[in-house]
TrEMBL record:
PANTHER family: 8-OXO-DGTP DIPHOSPHATASE, NUDIX HYDROLASE FAMILY PROTEIN. Belongs to the Nudix hydrolase family. The keyword Metal-binding applies. Residues 24-152 form the Nudix hydrolase domain. GO terms for biological process: DNA repair; DNA replication. PROSITE patterns: NUDIX (PS51462), NUDIX_BOX (PS00893). One of its GO terms (molecular function) is 8-oxo-7,8-dihydroguanosine triphosphate pyrophosphatase activity. It comes from Ottowia oryzae. Its cofactor is Mg(2+). InterPro entries: MutT-like (IPR047127), Nudix_hydrolase (IPR020476), NUDIX_hydrolase-like_dom_sf (IPR015797), NUDIX_hydrolase_CS (IPR020084), NUDIX_hydrolase_dom (IPR000086). This is 8-oxo-dGTP diphosphatase. It catalyses: 8-oxo-GTP + H2O = 8-oxo-GMP + diphosphate + H(+); 8-oxo-dGTP + H2O = 8-oxo-dGMP + diphosphate + H(+).
């Protein structure tokens, strides 16, 4: 399901249209909503050195050239958290475009109930198994809609 465009931190925006810049390229991002047996979901903090460092988000990252969302998510979760994911277990959920001052991103949110291995913070990030309402902050603007969807929709603890 595709959601309406979300504009984040508009006050930081350069006015590209007024400057006559070319339309911005869309960056595709695979994002995992990992749901544990108790129904809690995984949030990770963005590592130092990235935009919005310290903000809480769902783990994932940009697709490489020619990569599917499922394969990109499996790769990112291995690189960031050291867990093994079978792309066949990745369940596409919703798509959200977010217009940030730094990038225009298309977030492919996927649900995931199965993976192998223990979590490791391979990029120095923190993680938390969260429930609603979340107690960590700040949450990345592009992760906020997921919290709303999780609240609106009954997400079974296992599937
Ligand atoms: N992983 C993740 N990214 C998100 C979420 N919400 C959201 O807007 N984004 C945006 O999606 C983009 C993901 O980029 P990233 O920097 O995490 O990806 P990456 O690890 O491939 O980046 P790098 O290799 O350039 O460091 C960022 O612009 C980030 O702000 C989310 O919940 N999870």
């Amino acid at each position: 399901m595709s959601e309406p465009l979300l504009t984040a931190d508009a006050h930081l925006r350069r006015d590209d249209a007024a400057r006559g810049d070319a339309p911005r390229k869309v960056v595709d991002v695979a994002v995992g909503v990992l749901i544990g047996a108790d129904g809690r979901f995984l949030l990770t903090s963005r590592p130092e050195g990235k935009v919005y460092a310290g903000y809480w988000e769902f783990p994932g990252g940009k697709l490489e050239a020619g990569e599917s969302v499922e394969a990109a998510l499996a790769r990112e979760l291995s690189e960031e958290l050291g867990i093994a994911v079978d792309p066949a277990h990745v369940q596409r959920w919703r798509e959200q475009m977010v217009d940030y001052p730094h990038a225009l991103v298309r977030l492919h949110f996927c649900r995931l109930y199965q993976w192998q291995g223990e979590l490791q913070a391979r990029e120095g990030q923190s993680w938390v198994w969260a429930a609603l309402p979340v107690t960590v902050s700040p949450v990345l603007p592009g992760a906020l809609p997921v919290l709303r969807w999780l609240g609106e929709e009954h997400v079974p603890p296992s599937a």
